[in-house]
Fold these 3 entries.
Entry 1:
Amino acid sequence: MSEPDGQAFSDRIFAAEDGMHLHLRDYHPGPDATGSRLPVICLAGLTRNARDFHQLALIISQDARTPRRVIALDYRGRGLSDRDDNKANYTVLVEAQDVIHVCAGLGVDRAIFIGTSRGGLILHMLAAIKPDLLAAVVLNDIGPVIEAKGLMQIRDDLNSAIPPRDWNDATKMLKARHGADFPALGEQDWVEMADAIYRETDGRIVADVDPAIAAQLITIDFENPLPDLWSQFDALANTPMMVIRGEHSALLSEATVEEMAARHPAAQLVLAREQGHPPLLHLQPVADEIMSFLASV
């Protein structure tokens, strides 16, 4: 795995309330550059980590006119954060509490949040338990209703993946599995995706996540409807919002986005064309849409 633009961010470690060490990347241009602008906190998907946001974090933190501090967190069990011996702690509620604790440690009492997939579910939870923390939210291919078909696809993909032989194989495998849903991606995008998902450990290329997290999906009973989060979503009614949906997403349906827009008429809707779940946010024109949204907050 490469270490791109190492000087652009600082690696920081915070202790969760139960002592777990949580890692984050802190892209901080400095108070003279950011002024009073709110920081941006990025929350990744179920098995992903802070590296997913590297390219977007550079765009935001190094913007020539309005740079902002960007913080990208590794949840417990992901990236450089500790693996939890108690696998029952891998829940949206515990992860939301970790976010609150890290924000307190950083001295951040209000921020703009970008939540991809699982990260967006955490934002729904924060809307219920810590709404004052949310100055604005970007929900990336996630909403109050998760399509069972999409979640089953994620379950099967995560639990059947074969470890790649080397980094070149990792890139080829990702492209073979997801290329049909992501025609917008170029070769370098696939390389960067492999860098974000995998880590080299003891000479082996492995997914940078506790395997127990993917295994949790196997226990879901898809014979019963998945619970929705409309009440938590409605708590965001007065919060500036952007909703991004991948054109080929199987997790977030067009019908759910339409209902989200009806309940939150001020929400800005963005379609990430030629992308599936979850869209890469640094690709154009999505990145420009995000920058415009940030400027409005």
Note: Residues 148 and 280 are 22 Å apart (CA to CA).
Entry 2:
Amino acid sequence: MSWLHELVARLSGVDGHFARDIVASLLVGLLILLIQAFLRRQIARTGLPPESKRRWLVQVRNGALILFFFGLTVIWAAELRSVALSLVAFAAAVVLATKELIMCLSGTILRGSAQSFKLGDRIEVNGLRGDVIDMGLMTTTLLDVGPGSTIHQHTGRAVVLPNSIWLSSPVTNVSFTELYVLHVLTIPVELGVELPAIEEALLSAANDICEPFLEEAKAHLDKLGARRGLETPTAEPRIWMRVTAPKQLELLLRFPAPTRKVGRVEQAILRRFLESGLRLDRG
């Protein structure tokens, strides 16, 4: 065992615990090699068929490797635990330092997997509304539409959104129905006015303005409903009413319009209706 004393002497300058682990690892490896050699010799002496011998030799080899790595794990458990803790601390620091980057990349994955919108769609998210003009790995750029939620004109501003917003905020795809959309125009009126005449004038204005593209809008919505398995809403202009105050009503006019011309169609209907000269109050 002079070689063992010599090895210990060479490792005497190293930390005692570390040196003992190295020596123990070498001894475990040597012991497993001796056991493996003994078992291989015993298997070779048996009268088993060649295939059975080969199978046993493979099992002995694999078992020796498993025992060796198990022994190393037991011997170096303290060091491995320290390394694991260091790796966890390092990983936590990396995650904290790159939190926004990771969230943006996660938002990109969510945006792509959900397919909630595509380039060119008009969307609303977190109080912002606009047309999608760029979709990157980290950001999404909108061409702002407004001002406010009732105006449909481009403001000339570009809004750059971090993709992390898709993880926390719901997104509304205004152009989900693609070429044509169903838009709602709200008209406030007082109780006691000539409501039937106002409804008739509003519907007449909507039918006149929408007449050039009404059939095409119907066909498009029917085709879209059949493709996506959705119940197709009627495309003809319709009016609903709701009470907003004790003496106040709102007429909700729903009408079809080309996706890129919603604002123009709305303004044309409103102007045509105002030409009727009907009062919306009792004054």
Note: The radius of gyration is 38 Å.
Entry 3:
Amino acid sequence: MVIDTPPDFRDQVLTFGVTRVDAVFLTHIHADHIFGFDDLRRFCYMQDAVIPVYGSPATIEGMREKFRYVIDESIWKHSAPRVQFNAVAPTDRVAVAELEVQPVEVPHGPMAIYGFIIRHAGKSVGYVPDCSDLDSIAIEQFQSVDVMILDALREAPHPTHLCLPQAVDLLKQIGASQSYITHLCHDLEHEATQARLPTGIDVPYDGLQLTV
């Protein structure tokens, strides 16, 4: 299962040996989250299968516009299989093998986008790479997770992202056993940032594997 297909999607799957994708979940349609999408189609051919792609109605509408050639039958009819776009609401639950994925609507500046809760065998992970705030409903939903991953762009406030102090405050309210900050920009040096984070909140790294 993949969340978002950023511009370096191809490099990531090659680097970490990803040989199969069963489903894709999209947070929103900003370029840094979707512009590696075309490389997903290679998995369709390798697996000889249609790969489902899930997102909010607005996200799926945007994907249909930006990647029309992926779903236009007059274009792909001689090169199926292909991806399948599916709009899901925050009240929906999507099953991927033994996983259950729940969308959680969060603000990204003026946009309403999705974070996700992934559940399996009584354990769960919350993932919100982009947001500018979490309301009380979202906080309550994420308070059930064992691991929480949350946007923390930089030290100074930003109109569409959480800054580090905001993220730390929200992660304390959520209270997961283990938390990570993500979407860091170059203003936050990793080791220096890690040194001043509270216990249980960490800076992740490429290739990090979690056992929940």
Note: Residues 164-174 form the longest helix (11 residues).
